Amino acid sequence: MLPELADNFRPVARPRIIENAYTEDQHRRLLDVVRRNGPWPLILAENFKTPEEVIATTSGKIPEGVTLTWDMILNPVFRGYLARQGVCFYPELEDCYYNSHFLELVRGYWGARYAEPETFLFNIQGPTPIGGPPHLDGTVFRGMTMENTPLWLLLTMAKSCLFRHWQAKKGQVIAWYYKGRIGGGFNCWPDGPRGEPLQINGPMWGRAVVVENEMMFHHGQAAGPVAMRRPAGLDISSTFGADPATADDWQISTFGKVSQTIPAREMRFLVHWGARVYRDLQELKVALDHTDDIGREQAIDMLIADMRRRGIVFETPTDPMNDRQFIGLVSQVYDIGGPTNIPADETEERAA
Ligand SMILES: [Fe+2]
Q1: Distance in Å, CA 105 to ligand 1 centroid
Q2: Nearest-angstrom CA–CA distance, 115 and 106
Q3: How remote is the CA of residue 193 from the centroid of ligand 1, in Å?
Q4: pLDDT at residue 57 above 90?
Q5: How far is the CA of 72 from the centre of ligand 1 (A)?
Q6: CA of 323 to the centre of ligand 1 (A)
Q7: What is the Å distance from ligand 1's center to 219 Cα?
Q8: Of the candidates 58, 104, 106, 261, which lies 20 to 30 Å from 170 by C-alpha distance?
Q9: pLDDT-derived band of residue 60, with 50, 70 and 90 as boundaries?
């Protein structure tokens, strides 16, 4: 464990708070796409097939004799994608994605000349417990991305701080629409994990932050009435969609049955817009022309050399990409922890 590495995780600039991130008309179209194209899967459904896999990646331990079921660990937060790289999936949202205002915001945040939209997704939820421990969003490196590199290696590379030279520069505009009066905000640690947390509290309607979430620990606050935060019987296949009987309420469905109805005022809608940023034309060319990429072999060699320098004793793996012992070792060595000064969950209504 190398908790001192966690101190390196500070964003390029403090989060910048803006209001009215989307116009009323844009927000209406965003929500309309979400109502018409749902229902939407759980975030966890993207990456996991069994509850044990989730525990394994969060480095938790399963108590002996306990059989895990999904409703013990599922956080009812759902997700959909609105764009990928240069393509916006919904023509009616193109002005939201190819967004000159947001591009200007992230360029300004980085002091960079160029930016391109790269990700556009939403999280949608009703009342929920806290969004897990504070985390960093996954990042990529020139030459090594989700398309050619397993997640464990990308995560390890990011946490090791050895690969900043190749790390993509990114900026996000994260916007919230949440009328509820209990929690539902955002906690982040712009001064590093040992610094004071910055809380952006609900209710919020179009408030957004410009951030670098790959380099800043953050998480969502618990939201909504406590008694509603853990709907019974959730499954990894549960979905979130419009309640067809109403104009603006929502529902969680599991195996064809409604598990929970969520009134519009308890629904929390987060819109995540992300861009790739290039400081200047030179940096843009290096990325697009692949003149300074890193590959698997070099990355693994650098991790091995770093662990040896730290005095860790291990056998050099012959097939590191598939060596479970080696993968376990690097995940353990570069387990950097994170903030421990987590603000208490809100459980009562905030005054209007
Ligand atoms: Fe995140």
Answers
A1: 19
A2: 7
A3: 15
A4: no
A5: 21
A6: 29
A7: 6
A8: 58
A9: low
Q: What is the widest separation between alpha-carbon atoms in the chain? A: 63
Find where tokens 């990042």 sit.
139
Cβ atoms of 37 and 191 within 8 Å: the answer is no
The model's pLDDT over 290-322, given as tens digits with 9 standing for 90+, comes to: 999 999 999 999 999 999 999 999 999 999 998
User: How far does the centroid of ligand 1 lie from the alpha carbon of residue 70, in Å?
Assistant: 21
- Tell me which architecture the domain covering 3-48+68-150+166-294 has in CATH: Sandwich (2.60)
**Helix or strand or coil: residue 266?**
helix
Report how far ligand 1's centroid is from the alpha carbon of 218 (Å).
6
Q: How far is the CA of 308 from the centre of ligand 1 (A)?
A: 32
Residue 291 Cα to ligand 1 midpoint, Å, equals 30
Residue 337: exposure state from Cβ atoms within 10 A (0-12, 13-18, ≥19): middle
Residues near ion ligand 1 (CB < 5 Å) are 137
CA pair distance 236, 214, nearest whole angstrom: 26
pLDDT bracket for residue 63 (50, 70, 90): low
Summarize the confidence of residues 256-285 as an average pLDDT. 97
Q: What's the token pair of residue 13?
A: 């600039």
b/e for 151-162, b at 16 or more Cβ within 10 A? eebbbbbbbbbb
Give the distance (Å) from ligand 1 centre to CA of residue 244.
Answer: 30
Query: Is 349 exposed, middle or buried, given 0-12, 13-18 or 19+ CB atoms closer than 10 A?
Result: exposed
Alpha carbons 123 and 112: distance in angstroms, whole number: 28
Q: Span 142-168, mean pLDDT?
A: 93
How far apart (Å, rounded) are the C-alpha atoms in residues 251 and 242? 6
Please give the distance, rounded to the nearest whole angstrom, from the Cα atom of residue 137 to the centre of ligand 1: 5
pLDDT tens for 188-197 read 999 999 999 9
